[in-house]
Design goal:
Belongs to the AHA1 family. Pfam families: AHSA1. InterPro entries: ASHA1/2-like_C, START-like_dom_sf. The chain has 326 residues and is an alpha+beta fold. Helices cover 25% and strands 40% of the residues. The chain has ten helices and 16 strands. An eight-stranded antiparallel sheet has the order 1-2-8-7-6-5-4-3. An eight-stranded antiparallel sheet has the order 9-10-16-15-14-13-12-11. Helix 7 crosses helix 8. The longest helix is centred in the C-terminal third of the chain and has 17 residues.
Length: 326
C-alpha cells in the first residue's frame, strides 16, 4: 500500500493524504494529466470514475462521475485554478449533476495535489480543504478518508509496467476482507479481444470450461445492462462430476471497460455474489481485474475452497491458447 498517512485537521478544516511511489515525478504527474489513466484509480474499488470534460489548465473544467456496482452515478466537478506541471495543481472540488453543473446545496472545497521528488521516487500529497467544519464532517462521514485511501492504493498498478507487474504470473487471488476478493490476470492482447471473449457466446464456449474434461452446455448472455444470463457445464466422457451452472443479471455495462453482474449457483440456496469485472490496457497488455463481493465470510471461504482460482487459471490459459495466440 503506497499511502503512508491520512490525517484530518478540524482546526484547519482539512484532510491530507500522503503516498510514496518508486517512479519519477513526471510519471506520477502523467497519471493525473491523462484522463484515461486517471480513470483507472480515481475512485475506490467498485466505484470507478469516468472523466468526460477534462481540461487541466488554469480556468479549465473537469467533469467526472463514479458508477456504483448497482449502476448509480455520483457526479463531481473540478474547476482548475492553478497548474504548475509536473509539480502541482489546485482545483475547486464540487459535487455536480450529470451535465457538470455544480451542486450548490453542498459547499465546494479546494483540493491541492502536489508531487515532489524523494530519494527513491516521488511523494504525492493530496490536501482537501473544506469551507466549514460542518462540510468537513459531512465529507468524512460520506467515506472520503476510506475512499481516497483505496483509490490511491490502486495507483501502483497504473504506474507499473504491466509486463513486469502481472504478465506471466497467472491468476492471482487476494482476499481483501471478509466479503471482498480481488482477482487479477494479465493477457498479452488488446482489450477489445478480451472483452469479446467475455461477452460473445461463440467465443466463450471455446475457453470458459475450467479443468480439462468439461464442456459448456449453456451460454446465454448479452452485454446489456438489465438482462439475465445463464451458464452451465457438464463433464465429458469419463470425467467425473455433476453438471452445474450459474445465473444472474448483468447490472452495469461500460463497453470494453467494465461489466458488473450478480451471480448465483443454479439450484443452490445461496445469496448472490456481485462480480465487478474491469479491463485496463497499456502497451499491448490487458489487465483483467475481478472484484467479487460475497454476502458473508462463510460463502467466501466455501467458494474459494472449491479450487476456484485453479479453475479460472485453466480457463484463462485456454483463452490465451484458443483466442490470443491462435
Amino acid at each position: 500500500m503506497p499511502v503512508t498517512s491520512v490525517t484530518t485537521d478540524p482546526e484547519a478544516l482539512s484532510m491530507t493524504l500522503t503516498a510514496e511511489f518508486p517512479v519519477a515525478p513526471e510519471r506520477l504527474w502523467d497519471a493525473f494529466a491523462d484522463p484515461r489513466k486517471l480513470e483507472r484509480f480515481w475512485g475506490p474499488p467498485g466505484y470507478p470514475a469516468t472523466f468526460g470534460a477534462y481540461d487541466l489548465s488554469p480556468g479549465g473544467v473537469i467533469h467526472y462521475w463514479m458508477t456504483s456496482p448497482e449502476g448509480q452515478k455520483f457526479y463531481g466537478r473540478w474547476d482548475v485554478t492553478e497548474v504548475d506541471a509536473p509539480r502541482s495543481f489546485t482545483v475547486t472540488d464540487a459535487f455536480a449533476d450529470e451535465n457538470g453543473v455544480a451542486d450548490t446545496s453542498i459547499p465546494a472545497g479546494t483540493m491541492i495535489v502536489t508531487i515532489e521528488p524523494i530519494a527513491d521516487g516521488s511523494r504525492l500529497t493530496v490536501l482537501s480543504k473544506s469551507p466549514t467544519l460542518e462540510a468537513l464532517e459531512q465529507v468524512i462521514a460520506m467515506g472520503q478518508v476510506e475512499g481516497m485511501t483505496q483509490a490511491m492504493g490502486q495507483l501502483d498498478t497504473v504506474l507499473a509496467d504491466l509486463r513486469d507487474y502481472a504478465l506471466g504470473k497467472g491468476t492471482q487471488t487476494e482476499i481483501l476482507d471478509d466479503t471482498h476478493v480481488k482477482i487479477t490476470r494479465a493477457f498479452e492482447a488488446p482489450r477489445h479481444l478480451i472483452w469479446r471473449a467475455h461477452t460473445e457466446p461463440e467465443l466463450m464456449r471455446q475457453w470458459l470450461l475450467g479443468p480439462d474434461g468439461w464442456e459448456m452446455t449453456v451460454c446465454e448472455v448479452q452485454a446489456v445492462a438489465g438482462t439475465p444470463y445463464r451458464y452451465a457445464w457438464a463433464p465429458v466422457g469419463e470425467t467425473q462430476g455433476e453438471p452445474f451452472g450459474f445465473e444472474g443479471e448483468t447490472v452495469v455495462v461500460d463497453a470494453e471497460r467494465r461489466m458488473v453482474s450478480t451471480e448465483s449457483m443454479t439450484g443452490a440456496d445461496f445469496p448472490a455474489n456481485v462480480n465487478d469485472l474491469t479491463l485496463d490496457e497499456a502497451d499491448g497488455v490487458t489487465l483483467l481485474t475481478l472484484y467479487i463481493t460475497y454476502p458473508n465470510k462463510e460463502q467466501r471461504d466455501f467458494i474459494l475452497a472449491t479450487g476456484m482460482t485453479d479453475g479460472m487459471e485453466a480457463s484463462y490459459a485456454r483463452l490465451e491458447k484458443e483466442l490470443v495466440t491462435a
